[in-house]
Amino acid sequence: MSAGEAPGAQIVSLLGEGDERTLAADVREGFSKPLKEIPPKHFYDTAGAELFDRICDLPEYYPTRAERAILEGQSDELAAATGLGELVELGSGTAEKTMVLLRAASQAGTLRRFVPVDVTEQMVRGCAARCAAELPELEVIGVVGDFGRHLDAIPPAQEGLPRAVALLGGTIGNFTPGERRELLSQMASLLRPETDFLLLGTDLVKDRDRLIAAYDDSQGATAEFNRNVLRVINRELGADFEPQAFEHVALWNEDEEWIEMRLRATRPMTVRIESLDMDVDFAEGEEIRTEISAKFTEERLEDDLGAAGLEATRVFHDPDRLFALSLARLAS
């Protein structure tokens, strides 16, 4: 563990040298499976983050706008309902949407600390510095870490300071049912009875065509975002992928009720991954699954929270009921 400074904020890194994304281990394991796959956290290098920001502004991509609409409409109520003294945000990114809630809690006079957690150090430093500059009375502790592995190292809650742990953006949908229930259980371990809350953003089941359009936009931004993971592997592991030799695919899995993003080889090829001393063969039409994004019903959300020992106290929706933002606490 190492510590550092950003203007007005403290930075704590939980990552070792070369450990930023556990990329090598994920590639070796994922490319050895019958359906090759790579976790979506590897999308987010600097170029990937910029591409995702572009995606969020596209007309087809509704989740960011819908969740922001909830926060803008309900931030005062959320701050009051939680008595928000500390916000821990997992996968914080730029925390642009979260600032709506932070401002409301600051104006209510309850907010004392913000802990943004993200795997990309540059993202954490920039986010922490911006928050500290806008809300100088706030203690900001930026944590560079993988929330799938480092939740036990999150700074402990302060006595008398109500805490909310947030996972926004529908990120919980990137995990399989067993994985997300395990993650929710780990998040529940950060909460205290009576005082603390989980704030969870979930995308909702809706029309298939609208879902697919959100992940396969007409401008091709999502396709470039998807292919960027191959550029990350090339740069970090000395691979020789040709990103343009892979077609972007978005499909709706009706049985699982999730979107899958894949990269499909347009011709047979062998890719060398030098750092792993690994050659990977692709047949024409063979695919790499790069993301799942589960969509939720009320029943699925209730079941997943219940399996983690949590219960929802309030569920907020945007005006078009495309997205949900849930407040949950430890079940009594």
List keywords for this structure.
single chain; 332 residues; alpha/beta; 2 domains; four-stranded mixed beta sheet; 33% helix; 27% strand; globular
Helix content range of the residues, please?
25-40%
The SSE string, one letter per element, is EEHEHHEHEHEEHEHHEEEEEHEE
- Derived structural class: alpha/beta
Which consecutive residue ranges, at least 5 long each, have pLDDT under 50? none
Tally the structural domains: 2
Radius of gyration: 20 Å
Q: Please give the alpha-carbon distance between the first and last residues.
A: 35 Å
Number of helices: 9
CATH superfamily of the largest domain: Vaccinia Virus protein VP39
The beta-strand count equals 15
Task: Provide a brief overview of the structure.
The chain has 332 residues and is an alpha/beta fold.
Word description of this protein:
The chain is an alpha/beta fold and 332 residues long. The protein is built from nine helices and 15 strands. Helix 6 links the parallel strand 7 and strand 8. The mean pLDDT is 94. A nine-stranded mixed β-sheet has the order 1-2-6-5-4-7-8-15-14, with helices on both faces. It has a four-stranded mixed β-sheet with strand order 3-13-10-9, with helices on one face. The chain has a two-stranded antiparallel ribbon with strand order 11-12. Helices cover 33% and strands 27% of the residues.
Tell me the layout of helices and strands:
Blueprint: E1 2-6, E2 9-13, H1 23-30, E3 36-37, H2 46-56, H3 63-82, E4 86-90, H4 98-108, E5 113-118, H5 121-134, E6 139-144, E7 163-167, H6 177-188, E8 197-203, H7 208-215, H8 221-237, E9 246-253, E10 258-265, E11 269-273, E12 278-282, E13 287-294, H9 298-307, E14 310-317, E15 323-330
Parallel strand pairs: 2-6, 3-13, 4-5, 4-7, 5-6, 7-8
Antiparallel strand pairs: 1-2, 8-15, 9-10, 10-13, 11-12, 14-15
Helix pairs in contact: 2-8, 3-4
